[in-house]
Write a structure and sequence with these properties.
8-stranded mixed sheet; disordered N terminus; Beta-Lactamase; 4 domains; 18 helices; flat; single chain; 25% strand; alpha+beta
């Protein structure tokens, strides 16, 4: 060893000294120190390797999280159930790099039903060895806890399963689709590629996405049920009109001896008996069909109004009848008197009336449900033609208006709470009337402001003009309301652009709203507008049929990389 190396390495110097002196104790100590040094170097290399692997895993988990978050927004923008289910499963399989995927939703009885598959045809799944582990999906559904295995062939929870052995499955993950504490289904993924495909963080990651997906699925199911109920109510109303228009009366006549002389086809159809069987029978034979009819015939004082009676039918059961009895003169026997019995079958009418009453109540409930988040004209359009609207997840051009009471926060600090509420209620009452008069969609109230949409779900050419008309009317209405001795003043922003319109919320409440650049820009313009003024963007201004006088400004708007052309029009 060179003198230079010995100077650079203390252990080398000690080793040389021990060798030169023959000190065995020192030689042993140096050897032990060298071994410890080698172990330390190996541990340092292993630690560096683990740190590099952890950094790679963290980057991979972050990429998964970003992808799931981005797709969750897309899923929530649609109300078409099939589209939502397919998007949820495809995303889960793609992000987790799984080979197969199964999405199961619980039916009304709480039984899991397979709705969507990935990597395998649904018909093929009917084979017992191709299905996901039923024990696994039931456990996840019942406990609400995710299950994951990194090697199903070695995991005693899975290796007894027929499909796991037949398909040589390695990695399996199953998570619940849950809304708060209620589980509505499960997402199951597996792969034969290799053990350890799913990381320890994947159950939490996939569960977070599944919870968002469950809300979107429940929204889509709720909307589908409401739309189906409206269609069914409309069908029943049409059926009722046809049935009521085709009802005819049954006619039965008795001769002077009380013998049935006429039993027409309508009567035969009503009672489900051949007319030939009844013709020529004594009147008491009618008692088997209409209990109490003979008492009515023998009554000296016939009721002036029709009597409602019940009758028996061999297959239809109890019938509801309207019975009219009147004496008739018989021309073939001088002075003799017979009887005419007119029978109207009210059975179907009464059933339909009960159904109609229930339908009216259902229609009222549906109207109330939609009225919470749709403008009145949209609700009426949906009730008239439930299949005519495409709600949820549609791209459209919208004009969005934001209006805010200037200085109201400071004003609220000076006034009593009752006075603050009174002022807001007066302003919002006037604002709602103005918005609905111009067919706007009142999206929301926020604090002392409101957001109004012109366009989806029914886009019109005059959306921009109606938005400006609402702004002008809101300014006028605000000046009629005084607060602290001064009239209110509004700052209003209006912008037009492409948006995504859809329902966002939970099964207990859904809001029809729009998201996109137009909504963001309108909010920014409102924040920039001085009291009593309205700022509109260039796209809105160009859509106005008659250009109002206004100052053109070039302004830097937060969220926009380049300056924006705006017009101060009021």
């Amino acid at each position: 060893m060179s003198a230079q190396n010995e100077g650079a390495d203390p252990l080398a110097r000690l080793r040389g000294r021990a060798t030169a002196t023959g000190d065995t104790a020192l030689i042993a100590a140096v050897a032990e120190a060298e071994r410890a040094h080698e172990r330390l170097a190996l541990e340092r290399a292993a630690l560096q390797s683990r740190l590099a692997a952890s950094a790679t895993n963290a980057e991979r988990e972050l990429a998964k999280l970003r992808t799931l978050g981005r797709v969750a927004e897309t899923v929530n923008s649609s109300l078409e159930l099939d589209v939502v289910l397919r998007s949820v499963l495809d995303t889960a399989v793609e992000v987790m790099a799984a080979e197969r995927g199964f999405l199961m939703i619980a039916d009304a009885a709480g039984k899991l039903q397979l709705t969507t598959t990935y990597g395998i045809d649904r018909a093929t799944v009917e084979g017992a060895d191709m299905r996901p582990s039923q024990t696994t999906v039931r456990r996840v559904f019942e406990t609400g806890e995710p299950i994951v295995t990194t090697d199903a062939q070695q995991d005693p929870r899975f290796n007894v399963n027929l499909s796991v052995r037949a398909l040589r499955l390695r990695s399996i993950i199953c998570v619940p689709l849950a809304i708060k504490a209620r589980t509505i289904g499960v997402v199951y993924l597996d792969s034969r590629v290799a053990p350890g495909l799913f990381s320890p963080h994947d159950p939490d990651l996939l569960t977070a996405f599944a919870n968002q997906a469950a809300l979107a699925i429940e929204n889509a199911r709720l909307f589908e049920e409401l739309r189906a109920r409206v269609v069914e109510i409309t069908r029943l109303e049409q059926l009722q009109a046809r049935v009521l228009g085709s009802i005819t009366n049954g006619v039965i006549t008795l001769d002077a001896r009380g013998t049935i002389s006429t039993f027409n086809d309508a009567a035969a159809q009503t009672f489900g008996i051949d007319r030939a069987i009844m013709t020529g029978k004594p009147a008491r034979a009618l008692e088997a069909l209409i209990p109490g009819i003979t008492t009515l015939l023998n009554d000296d004082l016939l009721p002036s109004n029709p009597a409602e009676m019940e009758a028996n039918h061999p297959t239809r059961g109890t019938l509801a009848l309207e019975v009219r009895v009147a004496p008739i003169e018989l021309p073939e026997t001088e002075g003799a008197q017979g009887w005419a019995i007119a029978v109207t079958d009210l059975t179907e009418r009464r059933k339909l009336e009960r159904l109609h009453a229930a339908d009216v109540e259902q229609r009222r409930a549906i109207r109330d449900a939609f009225a919470r988040y749709l403008a009145p004209h949209v609700v009426e359009q949906l009730m008239r033609a439930p299949g005519g609207l495409t709600l949820g997840g549609e791209r459209a051009t919208a004009t969005v208006l934001f209006a805010d009471i200037d200085g109201f926060t400071e004003l609220a600090e000076r006034l009593d709470a009752e006075r603050v509420v009174e002022i807001l209620n007066r302003f919002f009452s006037a604002a709602v009337q103005i918005v609905f008069e111009h067919d706007g969609l009142l999206d929301k109230f926020y604090g002392d402001g409101l957001m109004v949409v012109f366009g989806p779900p029914r886009v019109r050419e005059d959306d921009a003009a109606r938005a400006l008309a609402v702004a002008e009317a809101l300014h006028r209405a605000a000046t009629t309301i005084e607060a602290d001795g001064k009239p209110l003043q509004l700052a209003i922003g209006i912008a037009t652009g492409d948006v995504v319109a859809g329902h966002i919320g939970s099964p207990r409440r859904m809001d029809y709203t729009v998201i996109g650049d137009a909504a963001n820009l309108a909010s920014r313009l409102q924040g920039a507008a001085p009291p009593g003024r309205t700022y509109v963007d260039d796209r809105t201004y160009q859509r106005l049929p008659s250009k109002p006088a206004g100052e053109k400004l070039i302004a830097k708007i937060r969220g926009k990389a380049e300056p924006v052309a705006i017009f101060a029009v009021a």
